[in-house]
Design goal:
single chain; mainly beta; Immunoglobulin-like; six-stranded antiparallel sheet; 8 helices; GWxTD domain-containing protein; GWxTD_dom; signal
Length: 465
């Protein structure tokens, strides 16, 4: 799977490789990066026996990626509750042969053999819905192709505009079902299997999996030179990687030999849109294409980059691999950068401990940072650390709600209070004549009074009891 390069900036925890650049990163710069909207694309090839293969291009556009318009009085909306809408159109064009790219030519270069268009209108009720990263629209464009080499390009038009933005040109290989030498991996969930059928829903986040959520791998196995239906021949391993490469001495984060009861011979396969989901269906039949499925316990994985490898134990060789990244959709801003994450501990650790956490190489600092939060993890048997997440979410809330022209919200008195104690049980805002505005924050065990020092949102703590 690949992301639409023109549409998306990839962001992952601790991936900045230049130490100097990382040290200069600020919370504000991370906020600008994390606010980038998201879109994803993917192409899938399903070999068919005695016919051309099914080729499908999947795409997912999150609401914050789409420009929404106000519903006009004379418009006929599906419901009176809808206040905003966004027309969207996606085109797919497939070309014969390899893409012959050069500095002067980045457009498709082959003979076009397939064109198709998808369109939809997204309707939402509130402005907050237009900014959502949890809501999306997705679609699929598919055709049948004989085995060969191709390339394709997507064109996207948003917000009712006629102007189309092209994606990068991507290669597409359709192999002969009788000579499939490499495995292929599909990231799915809600996999339902019976003796004669498999149905699953594509996750459709490009090469990403969702942090803290299990998923399944539907694996199209290579064409073996002998019957493997009774052999535990394949071993699946998932390694953590840095800069796309695993360590030569790294042990797999997860490994399993695929049981024979996970094999499935599919004589027919199809991809279709079903409601809001994009599904794959495999039907059993003798002499078909061999698949297998594996449930990946992703709740045990760190938020990081990984490589999937499938090994043929009989041939002692890797017959398939895929790079994936963990995506934490609502990850607190500070966690996008190690140094910012450590610096933001200044509200709960003393200067000496903060200096210790900030010393050493990047690997040493990351180790100390992880150990700091592991010691405070309320659920140590799971990878997700609720306390760490709550702490950094409070910093985000403080920045969003208490910032002024002079001071970021987390450095204000109200912001520091919120970070340390969380949301108050009650806030009493007093507008007194000829006196500064006051806010009284009430907690079960304390009361804090803040007083405005300007008309621009600056407050200082004047009393705590």
């Amino acid at each position: 799977m690949q992301r639409i390069a023109l549409f998306l900036i990839a962001l992952f925890l601790f991936t900045i490789t230049d130490a100097d650049a990382q040290r200069q990163t600020t919370y504000e710069s991370l906020l600008r990066q994390s606010d980038q909207p998201s879109a994803y694309s993917d192409h899938v090839v399903l070999p068919q026996i005695n016919s051309n293969s099914t080729v499908a291009v999947l795409f997912r556009l999150e609401h914050d990626f789409l420009p929404f318009l106000r519903v006009r009085p004379n418009m006929s909306a599906p419901s009176e509750e809808f206040s905003y809408f966004s027309p969207v159109r996606m085109g797919l064009e497939i070309f014969e042969g390899e893409h012959r790219s050069s500095r002067r030519e980045t457009r498709p270069t082959g003979v076009p053999i397939f064109r198709e268009m998808w369109s939809d209108t997204v309707w939402v009720e509130t402005f907050e819905d237009t900014q959502s990263r949890y809501d999306h629209v997705q679609g699929v464009l598919s055709t049948q192709l004989e085995h060969g080499t191709y390339h394709y390009q997507l064109q996207l038009a948003r917000g009712g505009s006629e102007r189309e933005s092209p994606s990068q040109v991507r290669p597409l290989a359709v192999h002969d079902p009788d000579s499939l030498k490499k495995a292929d991996f599909f990231i799915v969930n809600d996999l339902d299997r019976s003796s004669n059928q498999i149905n699953a829903t594509f996750l459709n986040y490009g090469s990403n999996v969702l942090y803290g959520q299990n998923y399944s791998l539907l694996i199209r196995l290579p064409k073996a030179d002998s019957d493997v239906s009774d052999d535990e021949r394949y071993e699946l391993s998932i390694y953590r990687v840095q800069n796309g490469e695993k360590s030569a001495t790294a042990d797999p984060h997860f490994t399993t030999v695929i049981d024979t009861d996970k094999y499935f011979n599919a004589s027919e396969s199809a991809i279709r849109k079903n409601g809001d989901d994009i599904e794959v269906e495999l039907l059993a039949g003798e002499g078909g294409v061999l698949y297998a499925d594996v449930l990946v316990p992703n709740v045990e994985f760190e938020n990081a980059s990984y490589k999937i490898e499938l090994k043929d134990l009989e041939q002692d060789e890797v017959v398939g691999e895929k790079s994936i990244q963990s995506r934490w959709i609502d990850m607190p801003v500070s966690l996008y950068n190690l140094d910012v994450s450590i610096d933001m501990l200044k509200f709960i650790v003393d200067e000496r401990e903060l200096k210790n956490l900030n010393s050493g190489s990047k690997a040493e600092r990351e180790r100390k940072f992880r150990e700091f939060w592991e010691e405070r993890d309320p659920t140590p048997d799971t990878e997700f650390n609720e306390l760490m997440t709550e702490y950094y979410e409070r910093i985000d809330y403080a920045y969003q709600n208490f910032s002024s022209f002079q001071t970021p919200g987390y450095d204000t008195d109200r912001g520091k209070t919120y970070i340390l104690y969380g949301p108050p049980t009650n806030i009493d805002r007093q507008l007194l004549p000829n006196q500064p505005t006051r806010e009284i924050w009430e907690y079960p065990d304390r009361e804090l009074i803040f007083e405005a020092v300007s008309g621009l949102g600056d407050f200082r703590l004047i009393s705590e009891s």
